[in-house]
């Protein structure tokens, strides 16, 4: 009797494992390509900012800056008040971010946990405001600030956004709803009030989403152009986006001035993201935020 040939018992499992590894490798390859395409413009901007003026136009954008030079940044600071624009933007963005964290947390907790008449219609009214384009509100907002004599001041840049946005309230409210209500009920049994629960339970458990909100708010405020362009007219209150726009009109053909300015405006945003990236990833994993 001829013995039957034995096949490996785990051949099917090994084949499935190899297939899964191939799929994972393909996904990582596609993600790497997408990431490279996304960050390539920023990397080329940083690279070109260090190129000498003589080689800036004679080489490709991705050609390494060899030798690298700081003369472009020196020329930028000597010919233009970039430090003032950076300080103005940091003050405005920092104040708006802090205000949104405070007031958005209060509003989100009220919508998520407190029971009061008209809560749902009011919340959905806030959500409906997310669908209104910013350009629609610019003229009414300008007229209001002009009537209050706030044009060309820090207050005109800060007041419209410091008390929170519909998106921020929605984001934090959805996160608050993922926190078990039993924690709050147990705290109330122990005699804790609303403020104590918010301060000692809700906020500590919500650090990831608050870090995400802070990052989004700071980046959006830093990159804002239309409203600062309308609300300010002097260099005393101009932010970095308005300053670079004016710089582009003044030095349109001098890329050795424009590229360092763009790099200087970009670096604080990269630092903010690197500082809070762990919290952002955690909030995405916990809330399913896309």
Please supply descriptive tags for the structure shown above:
single chain, 290 residues, mainly alpha, MetI-like fold, 14 helices, 75% helix, 0% strand, flat, Carbohydrate ABC transporter permease
Describe the 3D structure:
The protein has a single domain, classed as MetI-like (MetI-like fold, Orthogonal Bundle). Helix content is 75%, strand content 0%. With 290 residues, the chain is mainly alpha-helical. The chain has helices at 11-49, 53-56, 71-79, 82-113, 119-129, 134-147, 154-162, 166-176, 181-189, 194-205, 207-223, 226-231, 240-250, 255-287. Helix 1 (11-49) runs antiparallel to helix 14, helix 5 crosses helix 8 and helix 11 packs antiparallel against helix 14.
Compact summary:
Keywords: Cell membrane, Membrane, Transmembrane, Transmembrane helix, Transport. This protein is mostly helical and 290 residues long.
Tally of individual helices? 14
Helix content: over 70%
Please give the number of β-strands: 0
Structural class: mainly alpha
CATH homologous superfamily label = MetI-like
Named CATH topology: MetI-like fold
Looking at the overall shape, the CATH architecture is Orthogonal Bundle
How many domain modules?
1
Shape: flat
């Amino acid at each position: 009797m001829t013995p039957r040939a034995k096949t490996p018992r785990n051949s099917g499992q090994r084949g499935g494992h190899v297939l899964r590894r191939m799929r994972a490798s393909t996904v990582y390859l596609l993600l790497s390509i997408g990431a490279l395409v996304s960050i390539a413009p920023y990397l080329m901007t940083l690279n070109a900012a260090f190129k000498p003026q003589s080689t800036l136009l004679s080489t490709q954008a991705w050609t390494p800056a060899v030798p690298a030079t700081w003369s472009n940044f020196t020329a930028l600071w000597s010919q233009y008040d970039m430090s003032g624009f950076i300080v103005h933007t940091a003050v405005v963005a920092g104040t708006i971010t802090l205000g949104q964290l405070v007031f958005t947390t209060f509003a989100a907790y009220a919508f998520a946990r407190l029971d009061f008449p008209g809560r749902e219609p009011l919340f959905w009214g806030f959500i409906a405001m997310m669908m209104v384009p910013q350009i629609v509100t610019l003229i009414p907002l300008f007229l209001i600030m002009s009537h209050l004599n706030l044009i060309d001041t820090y207050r005109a840049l800060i007041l419209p956004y410091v008390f929170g946005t519909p998106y921020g309230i929605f984001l934090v409210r959805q996160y608050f709803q993922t926190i078990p209500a039993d924690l709050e009920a147990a705290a109330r049994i122990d005699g804790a009030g609303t403020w104590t629960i918010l301060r000692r339970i809700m906020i500590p458990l919500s650090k990831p989403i608050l870090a995400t909100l802070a990052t989004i708010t700071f980046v959006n405020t830093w990159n804002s152009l239309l409203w600062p362009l309308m609300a300010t007219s002097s260099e005393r209150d101009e932010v970095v986006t308005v300053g670079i726009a004016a710089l582009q009109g003044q030095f349109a053909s001098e890329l050795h001035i424009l590229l360092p300015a763009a790099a200087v405006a970009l670096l604080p945003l990269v630092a903010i993201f690197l500082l809070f990236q762990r919290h952002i990833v955690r909030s995405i994993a916990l809330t399913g935020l896309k």
